[in-house]
Design brief:
Shape of chain A: rod-shaped
Shape of chain B: flat
Structural class of chain A: mainly alpha
Number of helices of chain B: 13
CATH superfamily of the largest domain in chain B: UbiA prenyltransferase
Helix content of chain A: over 70%
Number of strands of chain A: 0
Largest interface: A-B, 15 and 13 residues
Distance between the termini of chain A: 57 Å
Largest sheet of chain B: none
Helix content of chain B: over 70%
Order of helices and strands of chain A: H
Oligomer: heterodimer
Largest sheet of chain A: none
Strand content of chain A: under 5%
Number of helices of chain A: 1
Radius of gyration of chain A: 18 Å
Structural class of chain B: mainly alpha
Distance between the termini of chain B: 62 Å
CATH class of the largest domain in chain B: Mainly Alpha
Number of domains of chain B: 2
């Protein structure tokens, strides 16, 4: 694997990790909101 | 898979996103949201949002499973050759796992947050698209688009059931509208890109049954669509706003199908009527469902009545 490929791989991994973190964060907020709404019933 | 380059690097998030077929998903989200908004009951906005999200996630999961199964086929078509799997940008098996994860999560969340019936219908729709359509019938019958249209017809029904918790005539009619809309919509496209499908060996109607049959069937479906699109008005499920909109929109749809049905393409044909029909068919669906929601929001709330 060339240094360029290594760099591209790193960049792809970081991008995907950030995307996954944002998705998880959004789900935490959503599940919290759903729980509050469900308690209200 | 020998021709496809594979390596174990983590895929870019854009590639995962591309697996969910975002453009198909936009139509799915729109019709699902319309089904939800047109339903005659109240749903908490958070739960409504969750329901639409689940419909989108389910569609995305089914789209990823479709691309997992059809990676070799996609590589042979110009339109799909630059998708992540044919390009070898991620291992094929990751697409399958991503699709399954999205599908399972969407059904589970729908069941927990919204209601059981909508989760069941969502699960059926995902299995229908990924298994019945993609794996079983698409490569086997020239009626594949009619069957595939069934998968695309689920979102407004699921959106409606997410609110009401029951299946009644109205959500079934919304299903029927998209079911009848899909063949003329897609065959109009297939008429001007048929060489590509022929190369990939997909038995599309124009390739297998010929142009004349395809053109005739476009008109037949359009006429049935005309009747089905007016049915919600006739059964009293909607008011005049939807009824008159559907009448005008569907009449124009049939009018655009007539020249497509009556003509035959020649050598180097520019296929203008077919392209016009295809472009209008997308606008038609957006306009019809917008009218449905407007009808509900304006007449259903007693603003005008």
């Amino acid at each position: 694997m060339t240094p360029e490929e290594q760099e591209a791989l790193k960049r792809a991994r970081r991008g995907r990790n950030i995307a996954l973190a944002l998705v998880l964060l959004a789900f935490i907020v959503l599940f919290y909101a759903i729980t509050i709404v469900k308690f209200g019933h | 898979m020998e021709s496809v380059r594979t390596f174990s690097s983590p895929a870019e998030w854009r590639d995962c996103f591309a697996l969910t077929k975002p453009r198909v998903m936009s139509l799915v989200v729109f019709t699902g949201l319309c089904g939800l908004l047109a339903a005659p009951a109240y749903i908490n906005p958070v739960l409504g949002f969750t329901a639409v999200l689940c419909i989108a996630m389910g569609a995305g999961g089914a789209g990823a499973l479709n691309q997992w199964w059809e990676a070799d086929l996609d590589a042979r078509m110009k339109r799909t050759a630059n998708r992540p799997l044919p390009q070898g940008r991620m291992p094929r098996i990751n697409a399958r796992d991503f699709g399954i994860a999205l599908s399972v999560a969407s059904v589970a969340l729908m069941g927990l947050a919204v209601n059981l019936l909508s989760a069941v219908v969502l699960a059926i729709s995902i299995l229908y698209y990924a298994v019945v359509y993609t794996i079983w019938l698409k490569p086997r019958t020239p009626q594949n688009i009619v069957i595939g249209g069934g998968a695309g017809a689920f979102p407004p029904l699921i959106g409606w059931v997410a609110v009401t918790g029951h299946i009644t005539w109205m959500p079934v009619l919304l299903f029927a509208i998209i079911f009848m809309w899909t063949p003329p919509h897609f065959w109009a496209l297939a008429l001007f890109v048929k060489s590509d499908y022929a190369k990939a060996g997909v038995p599309m109607m124009p390739v297998v049954k010929g142009e004349a049959v395809t053109r005739r069937q476009i008109l037949v479906y359009a006429v049935v669509l005309f009747l089905v699109s007016l049915a919600p008005w006739w059964v009293g499920g909607t008011g005049l706003i939807y009824g008159l909109s559907a009448l005008a929109l569907s009449a124009l749809f049939v009018a655009l199908c007539v020249p497509v049905a009556l003509r035959r393409s020649s050598e180097n044909d520019r296929m203008k009527p077919e392209k016009r029909l295809f472009a209008y068919s997308v606008l038609y669906l957006f306009a019809l469902f917008t009218a449905l929601v407007a009808d509900r929001l304006i007449l259903g709330q007693g603003v005008v009545a």
